[in-house]
Amino acid sequence: MKQFTTQQLILLKQRAQQQPQVIEHLKAQNAVVLNSPVQVPETAIATWNLYYFCPDHGVRLAWDRDCATHHRCPVDGRLFSGEPYDGAWWREMNGLNAKACHQLGLLWQLTGVTEYRDKVAAILTAYAAVYPDYQVHGNIPYNGPGKMNAQTLCEANCLLDFALGFDYIAEALTAQQRDYIASRLLRCGAEFLVAHRTPQLHNHEVKIGSAIGVLGFILQDETLLEFAVNHPYGLRYQLEHGLF
Hints:
It comes from Anopheles maculatus. This is Alginate lyase domain-containing protein. By secondary structure, the protein is mainly alpha-helical. Helices cover about 60% and strands about 0% of the residues. The protein contains 10 helices and 2 strands. The protein has a two-stranded antiparallel ribbon with strand order 1-2. α4 (about 85-110) runs parallel beside α6 (about 150-170) and α5 (about 115-130) crosses α7.
C-alpha cells in the first residue's frame, strides 16, 4: 500500500480502537452500498447530480437505491421519471460506489474484516468490466465530458476514490485481478482525464490534475505524474498562479 507506511497504519489502527465511533460512522456512511448487491451502470447513462432536483420546489429529490426510474419530491410527493432524473440517479450511484471503495478499503485496513475488502474488489471489478466501453458524453455547461459520468470533474472525483480503494486492497488481490482493474478501469480512466484536461486556471483542473497524479502514483507511471504536476496548467501551475 502506498498511502501509508507500516508505522502510520499501526497508529491509525490504534486510534480506531480507541475511537470505535469512527468505525461505526464509516459503516453507516456506506451502508447503502455495503448491504446491497453491487450495482453499476452497464452503459454510459449517468449524467449530473445537479439535475436531481424538483423543478417546482428547488429541493433535491429523495434518492432511493431500489428505484432508478421514479424519483420523489420530498415536498409534495410528486414522482418524476425519465431524463434528466434517471441519469442523475445513476450519477449518485456512481458516487456512492466510488466513496465506498475508498472508505470500505480503509475499513478493511483498520479492522481486517474481509467483507469490506470483498465489497471493494467487487465494485472495482464490476466497473472494470464496463468502463472501456462507456461512450463519452456530457454537454454540461462549461465542463468537459465524462465516460461513467457526464463531466470531467465528476469523472475525476470517482476515479480518485477508485484509485485509493484499489491501493488499500491491491495486495490482497491476485495478480490477474490487479491487472484487470488497473488496465481496464484505472489506466483507462487516467488516459481519459489526460485527454480532457482543460487549459485553464480553475479549481476543476486542480481536482482533475490531482486525480491524474494519484492514479500515476498508484500505477507507478511517471508519465502520468509528470503530466499531473508539470504539464502546462498542471498542479504546479495552479499553485503558482492560483494562490494569492
